[in-house]
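Let us work through a complete example step by step.
Step 1: write down the sequence.
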Amino acid sequence: MYYFARNILPAVLKSCYRKGIVEAGCDEAGRGCFAGPVCAAAVILPKGFRHPELNDSKQVDADVREKLRKYIEKKALYYAVSMVDNYEIDIINILRASFKAMHQALEQLPVEPALILVDGNRFTAWRNIQHTCIIKGDGIYASIAAASILAKTYRDKFMCQLHDEFPHYNWAQNKGYGTPEHRRAIEEHGLCKYHRKSFNILSAQLEMNFEMEEEVA
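Step 2: predict the structure and record it as tokens.
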């Protein structure tokens, strides 16, 4: 008797939301991180675009994500990636920063889509173009999944570059997320210029010391 594991292969993603129009899929990466930018991508795919491993970037291993990135960049009709840094995140908040990164990616596309498909449940309108928010859309529509892959891979590469400047946080591994290792490094070394100061990531004592240092400066 043979037993088949379930959910080994990703579901076949839908190629479009509405036939006959130009659709752009949008998604972001890094929204919940302690450090670094939030990154967003906008992707317009050709009709019938398929890849058997394409899925939500969180469901795909790093080596597969990299392979998918190259495939998407080669096969997509148009794509663009944009980042909003931690300084601006602290000023306008992470939700607005995520929307701004998506807007900037859309601005870079050489054609204007008729419909924007956005992963999640909230979005700020761009150029009065119709948009549809789809919860877990990166596991449903190919264009959103492709945007998810690009946003994740571009941001991961950027965090690896920042790692060289501040290796003790090990961003090459945790990519700025609040892992136990990252939290311990913050306890030991404090915050650096790439941390999001508006996020509640300091212990009470560390926060007090940080505020005192800022007052002296």
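Step 3: interpret the result. The chain has seven helices and five strands.
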